[in-house]
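Box 3.1 — From sequence to structure: HlyD family secretion protein
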Amino acid sequence: MQSSRLLGIGFACAVLAACDEKAAVPPPLQQVRVVAAAETRYQPGAEITGEVRARVQTELSFRVSGRIVDRKVDVGSHVHAGDVLARLNDTEQEADVSVARAALESAQAVVAQKTLAFDRAKSLLQSQAVPRAIFDDAQKELLSAQASLEAAEAALATAEDALSYTELRAAADGIITARGIETGQVVSAAQSAFTLAHDGPEDAVFDVFEAFFLDGRPLNDVEVAPVSDPAHDVHAGIREVSPVIDGKSGTIRIKVGLQDAAQWPLGTPVVGKLRASQRDGIVLPYTAIASAGGEPAVWLVNPQHHSVSLRKISVGRYRQNDFVVTSGVAAQDLIVTEGGKFLKEGQAVAWEGK
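Predicted structure (token representation):
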């Protein structure tokens, strides 16, 4: 009985010893693919969608209020400088012109009468037939009549101007791109009636997010192409950069001056390729990025100990197929690009790659 018990204890010790020997066997190395970090020059860029607009665009409006009785053009109409675009009811202005013209004719008649009286008083004074006081009175009345005539002429000119303001005319050759009035509508002075895009130079207008400007103004050369035909691109220069940020969209407006050879209709959707100055950094593929507490990181291989460690990094720019590291890794560091999803800090690895 005692020998059986000793045999069982010996068997258990043998099993435990075998387990200890099995536990002492190191686990297999995790296979990963790596790339050696190398400094390179990269050029930040962005493709922004915009549209073609006239370089000069004018908001046209009446200078007096009234009711629209005639609208001659619509959106898309091509007009020439001086063309009548719309008319207001001018009954009141016509009456004012008639009254002003009648007042002018009356003032002219008075001046003619006072001139004759002055000439007669002057002749009589020279012959000493009348006293000096009569001549002075005639001269004063003539000067007063002449002043009244000038006021009447000014009043007529003002009335005629007011009458001309009932016609809205094109300020230049161009295309009507927007309309804000309709026949029968009562409009106020300075209310926008039409938007006129002047013939001549055109711009490609882009609204660029302010983040693109954190590193400075983009390069002057911009590659512009229609969305429908990217192969027909042109190189154009930045003509204007808005000094303020749009409060609603958080964008900055850029106007690129198009060459005459472009010949794209107004409103054509275009894509502009903007580029910034070249910079130094370390470019890594997207497969290399990991996370350390919600912050970007990479797995760094220690070639001496054949182990990995998680290293936080600063990303300067995310691009289409890769990202740019500005700090956290150095040139020649081995960065895990494949097989890093299940790695642990200090885990032994075997690697292949550059």
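Summary of the box: The CA atoms of residues 170 and 308 lie 73 Å apart.
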